[in-house]
Specification:
Number of helices: 13
Strand order of the largest sheet: 1-9-6-4-2-3
Oligomer: single chain
Shape: globular
Structural class: alpha/beta
Helix content: 40-55%
């Protein structure tokens, strides 16, 4: 089979291992930084997860901000970048989940360009060197430590702003499974399903390529099924090995989407998160199977190839395993009604979905009637 031309960007450096977070400021890209901004959220700080990374910086941590909120926030990014600029920040350390890492990316972009975040929305709007960013994820899902994306909510306009630029790719990620031990079940489930959705969307995106697909399949191998790492993490929250496997899977899936992009599941998910405040992994999980089935008309051979790599007979067997993992093991609701969507929400969801850039790389083109039909079918 002839392979179409493709570009697969280099990934961030990765340091993996128990206790590795305690070296985040003293090993790698931040070793030479003199004035570092540390970005996190209150939950991470209260849980004591910031202590090791912070100690590795010592007096070089000139700004510590724990004000990140779920979905991040455009105004917070702009304000934080202004404070960082006044302090002469020359490096950033993000310790937290996807919102924390995306906030740090936004700060890096605003610092480099001297513009408000809203002015940088879109593709390839930065195109310059940014301050080195090191990420220490405390959830296993977004893979933001491995992507060139930042998704940040504009709470005033009620929508999410998406930035995509190779400059946003973090310089290094420290994957420390001990930071995830004891993570609450709901967060474990939602973030794990987010990683599953990343891997599946990368497989069939219009920009899919063999390297991204290999990364995606390996992520799925670690996440799908009763004996996989996600299920083990939900059964035994203190299982460091399972937590580590989930972290690696999220990173692999993040690398896959950074190269191959996403699809309609994320367009629907972004809309649901922006309009109703539904956690991103939950929003993706509600739509995932519907999008996979819609995509069969164009992507069946790609799903079948991935199924074979996982030892499954065909695309339907893969979908069955995804359904069990997402809805039975992780417990993600199957309908929009179950998460509070009512008839009055439909029009906003349709328009937000149609305006999302991820719709453009879905293997099947979805117009307004198709988007409306799929949302209505899940009501």
């Amino acid at each position: 089979m002839e392979i179409a031309p493709f570009l697969h960007p280099a990934a961030s450096a990765v340091v993996f291992g128990a206790g590795s977070a305690a070296r985040a400021g003293s090993q790698g890209p931040l070793k030479r930084a003199q004035r570092v901004a540390v970005i996190t959220d209150r939950g991470v700080r209260v849980a004591g997860l910031l202590e090791g990374p912070l100690a590795s910086l010592g007096a070089r941590a000139v700004l510590i901000d724990d004000g990140v909120v779920p979905d991040a926030d455009v105004r917070h990014v702009d304000d934080l970048a202004g404070r960082a600029r006044e302090l002469g920040v020359d490096g950033l350390l993000a310790v937290g989940g996807g919102s924390v890492m995306d906030t740090a990316k936004g700060v890096a972009a605003v610092l480099a360009k001297g513009k408000r975040l809203a002015e940088l929305e879109g593709m390839a709007t930065i195109r310059t060197t940014v301050a080195p960013l090191v990420c220490v994820p405390t959830t296993a899902g977004t893979g933001s430590e491995a992507t060139q994306f930042a998704v940040i909510k504009d709470h005033l306009e009620g929508r999410k702003r998406v930035l995509m630029d190779s400059a946003l790719l973090p310089a290094c990620a420290f994957l420390d499974p001990t930071l995830l031990v004891g993570l609450p079940r709901g967060i474990t489930a939602a973030t794990g399903v987010d990683a599953v959705s990343h891997a599946l969307e990368a497989l069939a995106s219009r920009l899919h390529n063999p390297i991204a697909s290999a990364l995606a399949v390996e992520a799925l191998r670690r996440l799908l099924g009763d004996d996989a790492a996600l299920a083990k993490s939900l059964r035994a929250p203190d299982d460091v090995g399972a937590r580590g496997a989930c972290l690696l899977a999220a990173n692999l899936a993040g690398q896959a989407i950074s190269a191959a992009m996403l699809g309609a599941c994320h367009a629907f998910g972004h809309a649901l998160g922006a309009h109703k405040g539904v956690p991103h992994g939950v929003a993706n999980g509600v739509f995932l199977l519907a999008v996979l089935r819609e995509n069969l008309a164009e992507a069946r051979p790609l799903y079948a190839e991935a199924a074979g790599a996982l030892g499954l007979r065909d695309a339907e067997a893969l979908f069955g395993l995804v359904e069990r993992t997402v809805h039975e093991i992780a417990g993600i609701p199957r309908t929009l009604g179950a998460i509070g969507v009512v008839d009055a929400d439909v029009e906003a969801l349709v328009q937000l979905t149609l305006g999302d850039a991820d719709l453009g790389t879905n293997p099947v083109a979805l117009d307004e009637p198709a988007v409306r039909r799929m949302i209505s079918a899940l009501r």
